[in-house]
Amino acid sequence: MKNKRHNLPHLFRGLCGPGGFSLLEILIALVLMTFVFSFVTNVNFTDRQALDDITSNLERAIRYSSNETAIRNVIVRLHFNLGQGSGPQEYKVEYGPDGNFVMPAPRESSSVVLTEAEEKALEQETKQMNKKFNRVRELFDETPQFPKSVRLIAVGTKKNKEFYQGQEAAIYFYPNGEKDEGIILFGTEAEVVALAIPAFTFDIDKIVRPLVDNPNDELPERQDKLAKEIFEEWLRK
To answer: Where do the H-state alpha helices sit in 133-218?
Structure first.
């Protein structure tokens, strides 16, 4: 027993001498590793929670819009502000004219370069259209916004077949039970989610794809690329 006691210090000789780490240094390293791991885990959990929340609220808004158009017997829309200019990315459910209202012709593609006069005309047309709709306040007390960790990438419909990334976009619901066959694409630094809305059924198709890390591309570029792939696949269905 006495010999064992004398031998105990030799077990730590490599940790305390010039050729190794002291016990204090090892403890500090373990604390730092634990802190970093906890931080990364917390960030991933926060992003996932934010993504789940926005997905759940959007699904709720879609179903509410389908019901609201029949109850009110008016056109209802899910209106998005993609935040390309100033202001946050947000969405709201709005009710508008009755079913006899003639919808304007589809706008020019967001990728088309407009003249200054065309831009002003489009802006005026958008303002006039927005005046015909009012926010449904029973669903959300305030206008829901996308959190900073979740980016609204694009909105599209099969009517115009465009991966739209302009300032404003909308998916319309009609009193006869029909709605725009549309898709909403959003994502975090880890994945992209798409909610596909069919024209006549109440089903919502949820598509989730992991985002591949590519050091040559910025995060928005990688999100756009993956979202476009999902959009093109959806168009072909």
So the answer is: none
- Whose structure tokens read 């792939």? 229
Distance CA 140, CA 18 (A): 65
CB 202 within 8 A of CB 66: yes
DSSP label at residue 162: -
pLDDT in tens, 95-131: 998 767 777 666 655 555 668 887 788 788 888 889 9
CA distances from 231 to 18, 114, 120, 157, 193 (A): 61, 24, 29, 10, 11
Nearest to 173 by CA among 74, 101, 55, 107: 74
Give 155's strand partners.
164, 184
In sequence order, the 6+-apart residues with CB closer than 8 A to the CB of 56 are none
Q: What is the pLDDT of residues 47-62, one digit of tens each?
A: 889 999 999 999 999 9
Question: Domains along the chain?
Answer: 45-236 (3.55.40.10)
